[in-house]
Design a protein that fits this description.
With about 160 residues, the protein is of the alpha+beta class. It has one domain: Jelly Rolls (Sandwich). About 20% of the residues lie in helices and about 35% in strands. The chain is globular and about 35 Å long.
Length: about 160
């Protein structure tokens, strides 16, 4: 009996540690992530993203996350093209923000948004969505305006996503 209790406690702690390591204490489970591909001049880059497509999930965003896997991110779906601005309130991680039009084309990249800043970020043009990645990833991978995002939200799906 003592062995079973110790085993279950150990398994529970391992699962908790894995959850925190992968998602930084996120409200989303790994199964809630969807593939997203960014086509750049140096090739495709695949990410697993959480989709924020309700007013509540968009308001929460990546607030209070203390860590995130560099191949994970969040895709904000605004449902229709509109001018948006993003901020970093209650967000301790620096983030790269990719502002994407309805065709899936990145029109603006905000590199290394400052944690906890309430300064609005974004282009003066309508977007359908914003992809948030760990700060520095866009620069490291060469993600830039003109690159394309492949995800069903934009009506684009790469061969590797099917």
């Amino acid at each position: 009996m003592m062995f079973a209790r110790t085993l279950f406690r150990s398994l529970g702690l391992m699962l908790l540690a894995l959850s925190v390591a992968l998602g930084g204490g996120a409200a989303f489970a790994a199964s809630d992530r969807e593939p997203l591909v960014i086509q750049t001049t140096n090739g495709p880059h695949t990410f697993a993203v959480e989709v924020a497509d309700t007013p509540e999930s968009r308001a929460q965003g990546l607030m209070n996350r203390t860590r995130m896997n560099p191949r994970h991110g969040m895709l904000f779906n605004f449902k229709r093209p509109q001018q948006v601005s993003m901020w970093m309130r209650n967000t301790p991680l620096p983030l790269d923000m990719l502002f994407v039009d309805q065709r899936g084309t990145i029109i603006y990249v905000e590199h290394q948004a400052v944690p906890h800043s309430t300064n609005p970020r974004g282009p003066q043009r309508p977007v359908l969505g914003v992809v948030e990645l760990v700060g520095g990833v866009a620069g490291t991978l060469g993600i830039a305006p003109g690159d394309t995002v492949e995800h069903p939200m934009f009506g684009t799906v790469s061969e590797g996503m099917r």
